[in-house]
């Protein structure tokens, strides 16, 4: 068995939390449980998000037991990936052509940051050490053209909000650079609100170390691995180092196949991970993450990349998020 932090959903486990942990705890390098999933529902007794009642008892049992066993415990939380909240068209992120996304929130929503902050505070009252935060940026560079983003960004480049389009932005390098900078500011302002919530809840509970937020960074060859990610998604590891000091690199999120040693693509990936050395040297935590780790080989492949990139913390799920196909489509689709 290869040690890693496995992020579980209660239905992945066909026995009680106690039985499962007594069998597998010694193989685990941390235990993760889904806290709020991409459907927008909480698996714990939330007063903020809608609750999947069937799982709340398991959630409490799980985190109480992992704490009792001294296992590092994480709970996941989907942030802008939130189908329930995105039912309100006002919050949906939108393409330049006006196509709305029914599963993802526009990151330029201060009131949604507050909503996320409440969820962080609620999770933080449980005996967990870390929140694994998914869905942390824009879908791609072509987002977002909702009313609010149009009306805020258009004046920055002296354009009418209604006439703002992606084509208009990218045909001018200066406009495009301002677009990146403006979106990046939104993403990090949102993360700061969540980090502040984590700090705040720490003052009310007895926790050995501060509650840490691992921020998902998608590492996708189509979006230029780590450097390209800054412009596509809006997040920047240097800023994350200032805010949460914790990144979770989601390797090749839209592909079932990872590159292997000997391929040029493998070398490019390892090189794209070089930033993590400096990130760690300055006190940050770095993990490699992968969805769909269904075989030992898939775990070993990820660990090989970690070994070559100097990363020794690994996480993953056995399955895929329940909105995977729609998320993949919006990420790789030609919107
Ligand atoms: Zn927007």
- By DSSP, the count of extended strands is 10
Give Rg in angstroms: 20 Å
Oligomeric status = single chain
Q: The CATH topology, please?
A: TIM Barrel
CATH class: Alpha Beta
Assign the CATH superfamily: Glycosidases
Strand order of the largest sheet: 1-2-3-6-7-8-9-10
Shape: globular
Q: Beta-strand percentage?
A: 15-25%
Distance between the ends: 42 Å
Please tally the helical runs, counting DSSP H or I stretches of 4 or more residues.
Answer: 12
Question: What order do the helices and strands follow?
Answer: EHEHEEEHEHHHEHHEHHEHEH
Describe what is shown at a glance:
By secondary structure, the chain is an alpha/beta fold.
Structure description:
By secondary structure, the protein is an alpha/beta fold. It has one domain (4-139, 184-325): Glycosidases (TIM Barrel), CATH 3.20.20. Helices cover 41% and strands 17% of the residues. The chain is built from 12 helices and 10 strands. Strands 1-2-3-6-7-8-9-10 form an 8-stranded parallel β-barrel, surrounded by 7 helices. Strands 4-5 form a two-stranded antiparallel ribbon. β9 (285-290), α11 (296-309) and β10 (314-316) form a beta-alpha-beta unit. The longest helix is centred in the middle third of the chain and has 30 residues, at 173-202. The model has no long low-confidence stretch (mean pLDDT 95). Zinc ion binds next to α4.
Could you outline the blueprint of secondary structure elements for this entry?
Blueprint: E1 4-8, H1 17-24, E2 28-36, H2 53-68, E3 73-78, E4 92-94, E5 100-105, H3 110-124, E6 130-134, H4 147-153, H5 166-170, H6 173-202, E7 212-219, H7 225-233, H8 237-243, E8 246-251, H9 264-272, H10 275-281, E9 285-290, H11 296-309, E10 314-316, H12 324-332
Parallel strand pairs: 1-2, 1-10, 2-3, 3-6, 6-7, 7-8, 8-9, 9-10
Antiparallel strand pairs: 4-5
Helix pairs in contact: 3-6, 6-7, 9-11
Bound molecules: zinc ion.
